[in-house]
Design brief:
Blueprint lengths: L1 H6 L16 E5 L3 H11 L5 E5 L2 H11 L3 E5 L7 H10 L7 E6 L4 H9 L4 E4 L4 H38 L3 E5 L5 E4 L1 H6 L4 H4 L4 H6 L12 H6 L3 E9 L5 E13 L2 E11 L1 H63 L5 H29 L7 E3 L1 H13 L9 E5 L6 E3 L1 H21 L6 E7 L4 E8 L27 H12 L3 E4 L14 E8 L18
Bound molecules: adenosine-5'-diphosphate and magnesium ion.
């Protein structure tokens, strides 16, 4: 191939002559002699050389091989160098080639015209070999770097486009008047239209669709106009077809130095998310309702268990009332009734009926469903009430119940009925364990500050205690070691205390002196959050986080 091209001198072939390099130089001259000189000058320099003896051939080769540099003779028959240059520059495929004009006309006008057409340089004939080499080298290097840069930019743009195209969130680029200047495919899909349809629309008019609305209140407006970033959930946007959907969006200002050019808005459709949240909320409510019901059932059970004690407790004052009434009647039947004694007897009747109604009152308070919710509570008062209630049940317990409250104990924030239920459950378990052990030690209830945030209640007994392997099962539903037990007391206690924001647990008691003794007792405890202090010395308050 090479031979064919050079040997004849007159009939140069016009194809690649040197395949060793990635830099291509196209030599164009209608004079074979000139071509030969150029070829000789540049050969063996690592270029791939192409040769054309006329304008038409030059265009064809340039289009096919996109050479980095073209040495282009100006004066040629048919298509001259200027025309070739103009055509090359107007075709994107060849526009970036460096065109170096070759001409014997060494005047300013010729050069200016060449540059005006996009020429990169100019070499005067007759050529100086060193000049040709130097210029080709320079231009070839510049063009190569430029092409590499362009290729890299293209790659980068492709990467970015791929990322933007594959994101499932919708992305808008807005100018600072709110016009959509960019929309990714996800945005178009969410809006049920094409990206082309979205571009040019005003974001605010298109998606909020009420011309009378104050634009300043609309999402992303502050970002577009004042560069303030925003983030909102559950705003309603119109789609292209007029339907609406709830969205979450975040808008960020587009800055260029200290100038800002509108906003980027990233958004997504949260219809499904909201539905799921609603379903979750409903499920949570259902669980809460069931928990309340279970707690209530458990209270009824406790009452059932306490029925005998209650009957006894009410029966005593009733018997006393009957007796005192008889005494009163006898007093009245006398000729001169002793008014003083009569009044005293009536007083006793009143006291006994108070005693009976006190028991009834406690039962009623205990049985009611906790509609009131959390309030600020004094545990001292509540536990005292619970103690009296529990005592209805302890005719067989010698030791009784002792309640001690440390001086620094603060009020708690809790539901009184639920806390009383927990305390009563723990105390009754303790009493039963004490009774089974045949012990006469009292059940000790103590109230202390666990830390600055929580009050702790301990219920300690000297009863039968627990086998170690049972400790882990205590709070599981239906775990019981009692013949008539139900095993729902402790699990209910746990859910009630958790609902108050506290914890409940079992602590193995200190073995003490008689370690190894069967009757080692048990210690159950629970905590409750202290009520937040009122502002400016006002009464403490309960958070609104109802359960
Ligand atoms: N103070 C205690 N001392 C020893 N064992 C206890 C004590 N409190 C609870 N338990 C154990 O935990 C089990 C579960 O208690 P609970 O849930 O109240 O159900 P129940 O009292 O109906 O058995 C009891 O059966 C008992 O084995
Ligand atoms: Mg129990």
């Amino acid at each position: 191939m090479m031979e064919g091209m050079l040997a004849t001198g007159q009939t140069f072939m016009t194809d690649a002559v040197q395949e060793t390099t990635d830099l291509t130089v196209l030599l164009v001259d209608d004079n074979p002699q000139n071509l030969k000189v150029l070829y000789e000058t540049l050969k063996d320099r690592g270029y791939r050389l192409l040769i054309a003896n006329g304008g038409g051939k030059a265009l064809d080769l340039a289009y096919r091989h996109t050479p980095e540099v073209i040495l282009l003779d100006i004066m040629m028959p048919e298509i001259d160098g200027y025309k070739v240059c103009q055509l090359l520059k107007s075709d994107p495929v060849t526009a970036d080639c460096a065109v170096v004009f070759l001409s014997a006309l060494d005047d300013v006008d010729t050069k200016v015209r060449g540059f005006a057409l996009g020429g990169a340089d100019y070499i005067s004939k007759p050529f100086q070999a060193q000049e040709v080499i130097a210029r080709v080298q320079t231009h070839a290097r510049v063009i190569r770097l430029e092409r590499e840069l362009q290729a890299r930019n293209r790659q980068l743009e492709n990467d970015q486009a791929r990322i933007l195209n594959s994101i499932s969130e919708g992305i808008y680029g807005l100018d600072n008047e709110g016009r959509i200047v960019y929309a990714n495919p996800a945005a178009a899909m969410i809006m049920r239209t094409s990206a082309a349809e979205l571009i040019g629309q005003n974001f605010f008019e298109f998606h909020f669709g009420r011309p009378d609305q104050d634009l300043a209140d609309l999402p992303a407006h502050a970002t577009c106009c004042r560069g303030q970033p925003e983030n909102q959930r559950n705003v309603e946007l119109f789609r292209a077809d007029g339907t609406r959907f709830p969205a979450e969006y975040c808008s960020t200002p587009k800055w260029d130095g200290d100038q800002f050019h509108g906003a980027v808005v990233v958004f997504r459709d949260i219809t499904v998310e909201l539905k799921n949240e609603q379903a979750l909320e409903e499920a949570r409510k259902l669980v809460q309702e069931q928990r309340d019901q279970l707690a209530h059932v458990s209270r009824m059970t406790t009452m059932g268990e306490m029925a005998a004690g209650v009957a006894h407790e009410v029966n005593q004052p009733l018997t006393a009332i009957t007796n005192y009434s008889r005494v009163a009647q006898r007093l009245i039947a006398k000729d001169q009734p002793d008014i003083g004694l009569l009044s005293e007897t009536l007083g006793k009747i009143e006291a006994q009926s108070h005693r009976a109604s006190e028991v009834i009152r406690r039962i009623r308070r205990f049985m009611k469903k906790p509609a009131a919710g959390k309030e600020v509570l004094s545990l001292a008062a509540l536990l005292e009430d619970t103690r009296r209630f529990a005592e209805v049940d302890i005719r067989n317990n010698d030791g009784g119940i002792e309640v001690t409250v440390a001086d620094d104990v603060q009020n708690v924030c809790a539901d009184p009925v639920q806390v009383q239920q927990v305390a009563l459950n723990l105390i009754r378990n303790a009493l039963e364990a004490t009774r089974s052990a045949g012990s006469s030690e009292p059940v000790r209830v103590s109230v202390t500050m666990a830390d600055s945030q929580f009050v702790r209640v301990d219920v300690v007994d000297s009863g039968v205690g627990l086998a170690e392997e049972d400790e882990a099962k205590l709070f599981l539903p239906f775990f019981t070691t009692k013949e008539e037990g139900m095993g729902i007391g402790l699990p209910t206690c746990r859910s009630l205390i958790q609902a108050q924001g506290g914890v409940i647990g079992y602590q193995r008691p200190d073995p003490g002196d008689d370690s190894g003794g069967a009757s080692r007792g048990a210690c159950f405890y629970f905590t409750l959050p202290v009520a937040a202090p009122g502002i400016d010395g006002a009464a403490p308050v309960c958070g609104s986080s109802g359960v």
